[in-house]
Design a protein that fits this description.
Helix content: 40-55%
Shape: globular
Distance between the termini: 54 Å
Order of helices and strands: HHHHHHEHEHHEEH
Strand order of the largest sheet: 1-2
Bound molecules: zinc ion
Number of domains: 3
Radius of gyration: 20 Å
Number of strands: 4
Structural class: mainly alpha
Strand content: 5-15%
Length: 248
């Protein structure tokens, strides 16, 4: 079946939503049936499933989709190789859930409530492609700035976790507020957004494993003077975090 070419950094969720618009299909379930052969597929924004079935019907390359059009690369370097592979397989499968496999549900940083967007990117997309789309780098937990324009991301009316779980909604310039002035984000927020975007671009197929991460964290602790012998002095690190993040 027809499927639109995915744009750089576009979420697969977004491509599926555009596909429905391009084909002029108003019924969400009709599209799900065509794309997945199953009208009950959940519309998952970050770590979607049923990708083998979708590839079968559309000719998409599943490995390319997972690496470049989902949030998989954001989590993959931080989980052991076995679980990384398990997550990859769960995304291909039609009878598995990805919840819990990325390890992010235990994190204190909360999921964004809404799909977010950068108004400047929207303008550029409309001028360049004639349509807008959801970028992955706007939907990262804890990231509130556009890595390209350094402005604060805005909330769309589309929930990040779907209430109507089978509906794929396209990004739309209609979300833009009447007063579309952009607010600059803080330097720290921009740095975080840029670093997270680098993670999304990682092509690394190997997982470093917990051991190598531990070594890196120990090295960083030494660099900032938070080591005493083999011990890491957490209170020194905590002081540094408070210094750089609690300015108000
Ligand atoms: Zn932007």
């Amino acid at each position: 079946m027809y499927f639109p070419r995915l744009y750089p950094d576009e979420l697969l969720y977004s491509g599926i939503a555009r596909c429905r618009v391009h084909l002029g299909i108003s019924n969400h379930k009709t599209l799900l049936h065509m794309a997945f052969g199953d009208s009950k597929v959940a519309a998952i924004t970050d770590l979607p499933t049923h990708l083998a079935a979708l590839a079968n019907n559309t000719g998409l390359d599943t490995a390319n989709v997972i690496m470049h059009h989902t949030l998989f690369p954001l989590y993959a370097p931080f989980i052991p190789a076995k679980r990384r592979n398990d997550l990859f397989q769960a995304m291909l499968a039609s009878d598995r859930s990805t919840i819990g496999l990325a390890g992010s549900s235990a994190a204190l940083v909360k999921w964004p409530d809404w799909l977010r967007y950068c108004p400047v990117c929207f303008e550029e997309m409309a001028a360049r492609f004639g349509e807008t789309y959801w970028r992955r780098s706007w939907q990262i937990k804890g990231v509130d700035a556009c890595p390209e324009h350094g402005c604060q991301l805005l909330n769309s009316p589309i929930p990040f976790r779907r209430a109507q779980r089978h509906e794929f909604h396209p990004a739309s310039p209609l979300f833009l507020p009447c007063d579309s002035r952009t607010s600059p984000a803080s330097e720290e927020a921009i740095r975080l957004a840029k670093t997270a975007t680098q993670l999304l671009a990682l092509e690394e197929a190997q997982s470093p494993g917990y051991g190598r991460w531990t070594n890196l964290y120990r090295y960083l602790a030494t660099e900032c003077g938070a080591r005493r012998g083999r011990q890491v002095r957490a209170e020194v690190i905590w002081e540094k975090i408070l210094e750089s993040h609690c300015r108000n």
